[in-house]
Amino acid sequence: MNSARHLGKNLLLMSLGLLLLGAHVIDIFPVVALSTAEAQSGKPEGLYYKSWAIIIGIENYVVAPPIPGAISDAKKVAEAFRRLGFDEVVELYDKDASSRRLYQLFNDMLPRKVGRMDRLVIFYVGHAGVMQDSDGQDRGYLVPFDAQVNNTTKSITVEQLKEFTRRSASNHTLLILDAPVFGWETTAPPGLSLEGRLAPESDTDRRAVQVISAAGKGETAGRVGMSSRFVQTLLTGLSGDADLDGNGWLMASELGTYLVRQVEAASNGTQRPSSLRIDGDGDTALLEGQRSAFTLDAGP
Predict the structure, then answer these.
(1) What percent of the chain shows pLDDT beyond 90?
(2) What is the DSSP annotation of the chain?
(3) Over the range 161-177, which residues count as b (16 or more CB within 10 Å of their CB) and which as e?
(4) Spatial strand order in the sheet of 138-142
(5) CA distance readout (Å), 31 to 26, 35, 53, 230, 294
(6) Are 109 and 56 in contact, with CB atoms under 8 Å apart?
(7) Which of 229, 252, 277, 283 could make a disulfide contact with 203, Cβ separation 3.0–4.6 Å?
(8) Is 173 in contact with 120 (CB distance < 8 Å)?
(9) What pLDDT is recorded for position 42?
(10) Rounded distance between C-alpha atoms, residue 190 and residue 280, angstroms
C-alpha cells in the first residue's frame, strides 16, 4: 500500500513538472516568433535587405550572328556591381542564357528568391528584335542564345518582361539593356534637381521599375572595336560620373540621364538611348551617399 501511495505521489509530481515545463515553453516560443517577424518587417540599416545583379551576356549565338566582345563587356559590368556592394551577382553567358534558362530565371527563380525590401538590377547585352503586338504597335524583344533574331518563338518579349516586373516583389527593379528594346508604357519620370535633392533616400521608400535601353527604334547599339559604346559609358557612370547633382547619391534616373546625353553625343546622334520609368514613382539608389540633414527652413 505504501509503495502504491509513493508511486502515485511521484507520478503527480512528474505531471506537475511537465505542465510547468510546457507553460515555460509556450511562454518562450511567442517571443522568438515575434522577434523574427519584427526583424523581417522592419527596415534594414541600409536601404535594401539584399541587392541582386543579374548579368546576361550572349556573344556566340547558335543561329544568329556573333557579337564579338559581348561577354567581356558583361563581365566588366558584373565586376562594377560587385564594387558597388551588390550581394548576389549572377552571371549567365552564351549557353547559360538559353531560352529555357531565361524563362526559368524570370518566371521561377527571381520571383521566388527576391524579397520585397530588395533591389534588382538586370543587365543584358545581346541581340534584340522587333515584333508587332495585337494592336499593331512595334515591341522589342530579347534574343536568347538559341533563338533567331527575326523569330519570336523563343524570344523574351517586352510584355513578358513587364509581367515579370509586376510579379517581382522587389521594391526597386532596374533593367539595363545594351540593345534597342522599345515598346514600354511609362509613368512620369522622376525629377532631377541640379541643386541636389534634400532627401534622396525618400525616393527609395517608393516602388520603382526603371528601364535604360542602349538605342531606339531603327538604331543599333554601336560598338567601338570589341567593346560597346554604351557599356563604356555605363562603367564610367557607375564609377561616380553619373552623380549629376554631386550629392554623393547615384540614382537610376541620374544614370539614365547621363547615358542618354553621353552616348548620343559620342555617336553624333546616331544612337539615342532611352531612360524610362514603367511603374511606381520611386527611384533606385545605386550608390548611397550621406543621409540628408532635415531642417525646417531648408531650400529645394
Answers:
(1) 60
(2) -HHHHHHHHHHHHHHHHHHHHHHHHHHHHHHHHHHHHHHHHSPPSSS-S-EEEEEEE--S-SSS---TTHHHHHHHHHHHHHHTT-SEEEEEEGGGG-HHHHHHIIIIIHHHH--TT-EEEEEEES-EEEEE-TTS-EEEEE--TTS-TT--TT-EEHHHHHHHHHH---SEEEEEEES-------BPPPP--TT--S-GGGGGGS-EEEEEESS-TT----EETTEEHHHHHHHHIIIIIT-TT-SS-EEHHHHHHHHHHHHHHHTTTS---EEEEEEES---EEE--PPPPP-TT---
(3) bbebbeebebbbbbbbb
(4) 128-132, 138-142, 156-157
(5) 9, 6, 36, 52, 36
(6) no
(7) 283
(8) yes
(9) 35
(10) 10
- CB 276 within 8 Å of CB 184: yes
Please tell me the distance from the alpha carbon of residue 284 to that of residue 203, in angstroms, as a whole number: 8
- How many angstroms separate the CA atoms of 217 and 272, rounded? 9
Picking from 113, 155, 106, 163, the residue whose alpha carbon sits closest to that of residue 130 is 155
Q: What is d(CA 179, CA 125) in angstroms, rounded to the nearest whole number?
A: 7
The set of cell numbers assigned to 138 is: 512595334
Beta bridge partners of 280: 208
Question: Per-residue confidence at 7, pLDDT binned at 50, 70, 90?
Answer: very low
Mean pLDDT score of the chain:
81
Residue 288 corresponds to which cell in the numbers above? 548611397
Quote the longest CA-to-CA distance of the chain.
Answer: 107
Query: Is 51-287 CATH 3.40.50.1460?
Result: yes
